[in-house]
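Predict structure. Input: Rab3 GTPase-activating protein non-catalytic subunit, 1308 residues.
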Amino acid sequence: MSCCLLEFCRVQELKAVREFLFQNQQNNPSLGDKKTENELAWDDSDWGSWDNPEAKEDGSGTTTGVEEDSAAGSAPWLQDCVVSLSPCSDLMVVAKDHKAVFLSAKWRTDDGGREEMTLAVSWSGTLSTEEGESVSSVICIPLASQKRSSTGRPDWTCIVVGFSSGYVRFYTESGVLLLAQLLNEDPVLRLKCRTYEIPRHPGVTEQHEELSILYPAALVTIDGFSLFQSLRACRNQVARAAAAGSEVVHPPPLAYKKWGLQDMDTIVDHSSVGIMTLCVFDQMKNASILGGFHASVKGSPPAMSQYITVGGGPYTGFYYAIEGSSQPLLSHVALAVASKLTSALFSAASGWLGWKKQSEEEPTQKQKPKVEPATPMAVRFGLPDSRRHGEFICLSPCNTLAGVTDDFGRVTLLDVGRGIAIRMWKGYRDAQLGWVQVSEGRGERESSPSAPLPRRHAQFLVIYAPRRGILEVWGTQQGPRVGAFTVGKHCRLLYAGYRLMGVNSVTSQGWLLHTQQVCLFDPATGVLRTVTVPFHLALSDKKSERAKDMHLLKRLTTLLKSREVEPDILESEAQSVLLDIKHPAVKKQALESLLANKNAPVSCLTNITRVLLASLKGQDPEAVDEGLFQLCSSQLKLLQLYTDIQQLHSTGEATTDTHTEPTEVAGIEEELARVSPTLQRYAELTSGSRPSVSFALDSSDASLPVRSFLSQMECEGEEIRVVPGPNADWTQLGSFLFWGCLTGESPLQKVCNTLQKTGISPQQLLSLLLSVWLHREKEVLKKTEAVRHLHTLLTALSSMKGAVEESWDMQCVSPWWQQVRSACVQSHSSAAALLAAIVAHRAAKANITILAETKFQSEWEAVSLELEQWAVCVRQLEDVLSLQTLLCVPPPQGTPGSATPHCSVKALLEGGRGGIADSVAKWVFRQDLAPERLKDMLQRRGEAESTEQSSQPEQGKGEKSQEDAAFNRAAELLVSVCQRFPDSLSPDLLFAHCCWEYVVQWNKDPEEGRYLSWAVEHLKLVSSPHIQLGISSMMWNTFIVKCFSAAAFLIEKVGKAPKDRLCRRDVGMGDCAMTAFLGSCVQLLQILMEADSGVEEVTPPELCVEEVWGEAEGPASLAELALEQKGVHYPLVQHHYLLASLLHTAMTFSLRVKPLSLFDSKGKNAFFRELSSIQLMPSGDMDPGLVSLRQEFLLRVLTGWVTTQREAVEGPGSGSGDKTWPSLCLDLGLLLQVNPDILRRHLVCELYNQGLDPRAEQDPSELGCPSVPLSQTSRLVSRLIEILPENHGQYSLALHLLEAVEDLQRED
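Output follows.
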């Protein structure tokens, strides 16, 4: 690995930037530039020929001739600008005179679909506010986020701009002026920043953050914490002012120190090194030099801040300011947001923000703030050179070295601590400097037997020589040039030298600071590139072998990535590289890369590993790395095993069965014949009915890649073991080893012998065999001979050493066979698990028989705990297969389908006693079975065979017959499952679980009122009142009461049946769904009352479970929870039933009513309480006013129902034909203390009014007084005669009627 220039960003709109900054100088090139070029134009054509061949490294970014020509015409403009790049590379500032352009980071997709970062113009404008001032220096300071979730990204970036007038102004990324400071009236020469760095060693002094401002004869340092707080306060004030024009809140004042630099003729640049503490010897030396022989020395060395300046007379000056010698000055921040905003953004917005006009502010703006005097500080010492003038100084990241450029074209390396020049480069006129600090990678150092060594850091000096267009990287302090790149002649080397401001030792924990150290900006192409230097280039010449090894490793990596290399060439090249690498760690890394390559054939890998191992054996044993030797020997052993297994599978030799006895084969076939119908039906439902995804590695003829084999196996000494990993990897490896044996295409015994010789434990081989068998179920069911081959393999593995312990007691459980059972009961492949259990049961029985004959030498059949475990396991797997077959029945078309659930013995045992019924209930929901159809299915237990014969679809019957046939087949499977689980799937438990499943689904989608209605219907089919009562209470408390109370309060608030929008807002469902919901609530409360009345007459049911499933552990079943529920208070349930009926009628007939207002205070307080609690209920005669309101409501209900009856007669498709509403109103009248005769008479009148005379004539016989006395009839007719006029057509009829009544009275 070597140095490289990596492109990470592109700058867009450079032409627009140039045109904006040079609007007045487009056609007037600078005469000064021409003069400088003519004065310094000596011949430097031979500088390009360097002896170091690294000048033409790959990726150096050499520009073409066309690019150079374009750069010569367009690029020099950047040299006249002030350029600054944020260390986070997300903001760049380009300024010229009084103008500036801000470019912010944006992400875009290139032509290849990759995301790349670009810098685009985000703001451009004029920065100066004083007449005649211009920008002299700019830096971009990213400010850290104060949020705890921050990981090192900046919150925002502040642009600090120094002007020729002495002002320093601070801006946001959008050009908004935050604050302005006039700390000195001379021009600002340079702005520099120092941010927090984690101390590398315990003895290193922790440096404080600061911003330093250099003037021609003064240096101002602003405390970083004070600046950070002030900038945050100003930015927050800007946000408030932009939002609402709020009043000004003054931020804390800036704390700064101002030093007057003495004893230097000219100063052009500086560096603030930070706080340093001298050792005792240096303290005594300085005291002697400064104070003479009799100077006194303090007890503790004082802390000093060191500053280095460059310029002339002397060439470099070193200043030391003792801490505490000058008190910090406080400057009140001139807020730019108060009523005197000078930003372009806020000036333009002055109209709508309501601030004063600009003319009113001018007198205030012309007043300059008070400038504090500087504290004198003399130069301690310097590097005198009367002819040399320094131009630029660049401090290293560790504050120990500094690079200085001068007007003689030299680059000098300074030792900051000792104050001496330690190295000088010549021939670098107008050079630009930067630093790269590289940390040592983890694991690069030699392993230490004691405590781990600390990570080392290397400093590299980056020099850009624009005259020659070359970028060089030099190792420090006396290191060689480690990289050189040919770049453009008009680039800018951008080096910040700081990171994020506002970071400290606490907030930086766990942060990843995303900053670039050195960036090269090419204005010809707009590309930003960063310099990457590997750490090993800083090592001395004694370690140069490692650099060569890394180069060889890179060469091997490139070779392995190529897909067009012939295997012979790959083998020879890779072998040569591996033998040439000297360092054991690098050689090990190269071998691992080769073994992990997917293109290398196994023969190539074997040959290379064998040659490498032979070369290691030929060396001195003490000089050979033990880890490398073990790697070679173990990998060679694994490669040989892979080759042997591959050859056995490719020979085509069939399996010879030598382990299976004829009696065992007959026993297995007998078991298979018994479960064959269920297996066949299961195979039909799981194969080909629905599309599925298959992979190449799932096929029997697919070979396992050698790199996958090596990654899954490891060798420890003489034994090989399988590395634990995902099930897919085990299945892939098991298929490679055993699938050929299971299909009968490979010699089974030879494969087992080969595996046994390698030392792989039989337990791991058994796990691999069971993994491939259980995960390739579909293929297993298609191959009838696979079961016999599985028996042979199991028997062969059981006979291996270490499989079944010889000391095994038959009255204990064998770990070997327990491993098989564990795999079967955990598998979701029900059919494959059952087949494996049947085969293993027979193999275990044969094994036990042989052991019994050996131990007891008796003809008695051995009875052991092991066989009992197998009998239970086989029965459980048969039950699971039957259940899984039912669950695989696809739902009918048009129903919301979902993935087929998979069950296992372990899952059912852990699901508790209600897990089986819960699985079937979910199947019922997926099948969209109505409660009555489920009831019909359960009544077919004795009709299974006849159903099967009559359910065959006849030709030409159509879709109806096919649906009936599908229904009959599903009913047959359900009956079969219920017969296998007579206790767990008793009708009451199944109906209870179906009820609960439907109410859960309704809770997920309340718009589906059918789900809740069917849940109630299922609940009605439960015969046990105890279970009915418990399920009803649980439904009410868990799902119903919240929506029910919301509906009641909504109708009470609106005073009528609410609209759809209100229902959705308050109740969570539409108006139609809410009507159906209230109807279901009426039925549920009615069931609750009936169940409460019946619990006293019936004993609670006894919940049983099948014998083989008696070990089920898990959550309590639904039935158990139902039986544990408390009883209910019947009057309170009836009270809620009354409210539910009123709500349902109001919604059905869209009536105006306040339902809660129909009850007194006691009745209102009793609503929505726990149904098992005792509440104070209304008793005695109700208030006549309430009774009147109730009567009026019931009369409106009857009127509404009669209207629907008329609509039903006129149009059969409209209206409600429900005949139960009159009787319901009468029942409600009795509960509400309303006279039922009034309701009946009103109903008859409404029926006559609507023209329903036949229906009205059926009611008089039901009135409370069918025979009215003749005296009252006479009075009624007399009253009628008084009302009718004499000329009325029926007046004479009324007279005759009166006479007839009087005659009848006389006869009585």
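DSSP finds 42 helices and 33 strands in the chain.
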